[in-house]
Write a structure and sequence with these properties.
disordered N terminus, globular, 5 helices, alpha+beta, 169 residues, single chain
Amino acid sequence: MAVGVAAAGLVALLLFFASRDSSTFQGAAGPGQAFPDQGHQHLASANAGRRFAYDSNPPTSGPHLPLLPAGDARPLSTDELLQALEVGDVALVYGDRRLEPALRRLASNLAGPYSRSLAAAGQAVLLDFQRGQRGVVAVAWRHLLRTSGSADPRLQGFIQFWLGRGAGA
């Protein structure tokens, strides 16, 4: 009887710790569309590698200048976007300024107000205004999620899952 209770306790303990495992062997799947890793090579100059064909728009990985965004709610360059994603930030790309207040609330609720130090730590949600963009596209390293607007509940789940998971995760 005591051996059965001890075995059951051991199994329960193993299941408990296995459910908390965040190893790289699980977690390959997550919200949004996954793209192949195109690397995170840091270019030495603005002209180096500019003929590179990114496999998504906006890009989710690939060679870039290591330029961390100084701010958000403006058009981010490909280099700024990829550097932010590489360190673990998430970007919300939108083309209608009327979406900005709702996106700012979402970003602030999940990560706090944008700051360069938060972005450098891979814990920022950036707003990336791109004229002509329809809806909202949430972008993380190797992943993106296309939505019709700021009210889509999948945005929160995407941010919560991918925030902090950059190229090294």
